[in-house]
Write a structure and sequence with these properties.
Strand content: under 5%
Low-confidence stretches: 5-13, 16-24
Number of helices: 7
Distance between the termini: 116 Å
Radius of gyration: 40 Å
Mean pLDDT: 79
Number of strands: 2
Strand order of the largest sheet: 1-2
Amino acid sequence: MKRRILILVVALVGPGRNAEASEVHAIDAVTKDWLDAGSKFFGALGILIAGVGLYRSARTRGEDLRWRQATAAHDALSEIHKHPEASKAIDIMDCHLAGHAIRIRVADNSKEAVLTLDAVCSALATPGEGNDVDHELYRCFDWLFYFVDRSGFMVRNHFVQFGDIAGPLAPYAKLLRDRWDSFSSLASVHNYSDADVLLRRITSESRALQ
């Protein structure tokens, strides 16, 4: 009798336990789905944050590079105006653009000469000949071409951007290229090939924009 009662109790209790176990398994499955969804969300969020960080880093590096290039171009152009001989060549061309000659001292500063761009072309046509004024003119434009050649080298190797150099040099590039027969010998003797390329590019692109 007792055995029959025990079997009956087990039979009644068993289904309840199985139901509870099934419910626990069901909750675990739902929790797992939420955990999977959460991990995927935070994983995607992490990738997004990393991508934004990389973008900002690349943008900062690009801005820094651009600033360095602009600074290098400014320094290269400033050197022309700071150099005593090269700045005289710029002064001569500025006066020509303004429609008048310029008075400057040459050699040991004991002589004063009235200089024009035509006088420069005449002096450079016969290098090594002429008087002290002619020799001074040659030195002035030799130094000018040296700095322009260095600027052309920097443009060619992407140390500076072409536009940063081209704008300030554009008026002078046109004057020099229009009289290239007088300046080509100087450029060739000193192998100022980058200056030649830079001046050609400045004048061609300036004409294309006109």
